[in-house]
Structure formats: structure tokens, C-alpha cells
Amino acid sequence: MDMQFQDLRVMITAGASGIGLAIAQAFAQAGARVQISDISASAIEAAVPSLPGGGGWIADASNPAAVDAWFAHALATLGGLDVLVNNAGIAGPTARIEEIEPQQWDETIAVNLRSQYLCVRRAIPALRTSHRASIINLSSVAGRLGYPLRTPYAASKWAVVGLTQSLALELGGDDITVNAILPGIVDSERSRNVTAAKAQARQISEADMLTEILANVALHRKVQLADVAQTALFLASSAGRSFTGQSLNVCAGIQSLR
Length: 258
Known about the structure:
It is built from eight helices and seven strands. The protein has helices spanning about 20-30, 40-45, 65-80, 100-125, 150-170, 190-200, 205-215, 225-235; strands at about 10, 35-40, 55-60, 85, 135-140, 175-185, 245-250. Strands 3-2-1-4-5-6-7 form a seven-stranded parallel β-sheet, with helices on both faces. The chain is about 45% helix and about 15% strand. By secondary structure, it is of the alpha/beta class. It is globular. It has a single domain, classed as NAD(P)-binding Rossmann-like Domain (Rossmann fold, 3-Layer(aba) Sandwich).
């Protein structure tokens, strides 16, 4: 199986921490040339040294002007583009729907969904000139399961799946693959914060909340960041060239979100 990535040109949103950083490091370690964006200057400063030959740019991926500036810089630096990883996302509020403010809803949709549209529209002209073009969108198992108390997040992640399937058909003639990764309960700071917020909303302990969550997971454990990163590498590899319009669940067999 060909998993060679030497000089593959990769752009990753929110690539300075969590899943984004794990994916960026995996590509860089495999020989790819990686450019990340992130809203946090300090996170970029800490992340870039772990990306040999890579670079970072401060940008809010939901802001059109910021996305345009990042693409102008990254495409000039890379000399083109082979892989776009749309990873930017926020957890959004944890509350009953009637308690969620319109501003919270709009912010979640903007970061989790609008950012992917903004980046894809800028990436496509460059991807059309690549012989190994792929778009990898980060969704979530919340993009296939109902998620009480987390409706803005779930709505945005279901939308990412629809975006992915539509783009796969639209861009298939250009030999650009488009797939989504749907992580489950990831062993990350964001996941821990969400568990804590749900425990508070349910008025139970964090330990009990986690036990309840993992009871609905076939393997009864969290997903590791490396598992998600390796899935991204597969989708961008020669072995993944016939995968498009797919939603790959990296979720340890989760059956329900509560």
C-alpha cells in the first residue's frame, strides 16, 4: 500500500492543537509540506517547531478576509495544493434548545460549517492542477446521531456530511476526492470539557457522565488522536484514491450520544 507523502502540499485549518495538530504532525512526519492556520498565535508558535518545513498563519477560518489572506500566503509558499483538511470547529453551547442564544447558534455554524465552504472555494482552483487532490472534512459521530443538549454542534456536523457528499459529486470530474472523518469520543481537552459541561447540565458527576458515555461505545474507550490522524493520511494516500463521498467513522463503535 503506497503511503508515501514526500513533498505532498497540505493545508490544515485549526492545525495548532488537538485533532488538527495530530493530523499536521502525521503529514509532516511522513514527508509532506504542511501549512496550518489557527486563531491562536501562541498555539501556532508552539506547534510549528513540530512540523519540519511547515509554517503557520493566524486566521479565523470563519472569516472570509482571513481565509483569503491565509490562502494567498500558503499557496505561494507551497507552490500549489494537494490536500485540504477542514478541521476548524468549536464545541458550541451545551444547553437545552430554548436556552441557546441565536449568537451561540450562529457562531457554531460559522466556525464548523461556513469555514469549510470558505476554504473549499479557495482551494478548488489549486486542487484542480494536482494529480493527487483530496479534501478531508472533519465532521463527528454527532453528524450521524442525535445529540441532546448539543443541537448546534450536531446540526453543523450533519451539514458537513451533506457538504461532503455534494462536493464529491460536484468535483468528481476533476478527480478531486472529498471525504469526511467522523471521530467519536476523542481523548482530548475539548472532549473532556464537553463531558464536564454535560455533567453539569445533567447535574451528575463527571465520572458518572463519562461512564454513561462509554457504556454506549462498543470498545468502551475513547478514540486516540493518532487514530484520526492516520485515517486522514489514508484518505490522502494513493490507497485512498477510490474513496470519495464517504463518512469514515473513527469512533470505537459508538451507538448513541446522550
